Amino acid sequence: MNKLTEIIGIATISTGLIFAPGCIKKETQEEKTKTTLPQVELKESETIECTVVKIETFDVDYDVMHEKRNYRKYSGNKKMTYLTVKDHEGTKQLIYPWGVGFKQGIANITYRPVKKNIISKCKLVNTTHNLNGICHDNGSTLFTDGIIMLEEGIEYKL
Length: 158
Hints:
Layout: H1 2-18, H2 29-33, E1 46-66, E2 72-87, E3 90-96, E4 105-113, E5 118-120, H3 121-128, E6 134-135, E7 141-143, E8 146-147, E9 154-156
Parallel strand pairs: 3-8
Antiparallel strand pairs: 1-2, 1-4, 1-6, 2-3, 4-8, 4-9, 5-7
């Protein structure tokens, strides 16, 4: 019995030391309110004169949780467009995140190149539509050379 009492005593003291107030890092108010916004690695904007050669629409499903709204989950779907364009450097595939309604032809397009040519679907929606939430998209990604960040980022030459 003495050995058992000694073991219990050591375990109790060890537990007390582990959970002592000085050993636990307390979150400051600043850390509690700090929100980490999703970052999309975009380069500086570029404007190119190019020919729109192919237009494809697609839907992006997303799940976003808002810290400021008690982590309530918002799900939705955004209609977007892939534009395949050709310029003097070659072919690029760009995403227009505000819907549809394009035609083939010569245009000036202002876009932001995406580093590594890959972007999370949720981060794309979060960045372009200012949802400012925490993404939950299970790693679903899109391949693109860039994002047309402005709704008026395409100017056709007639």
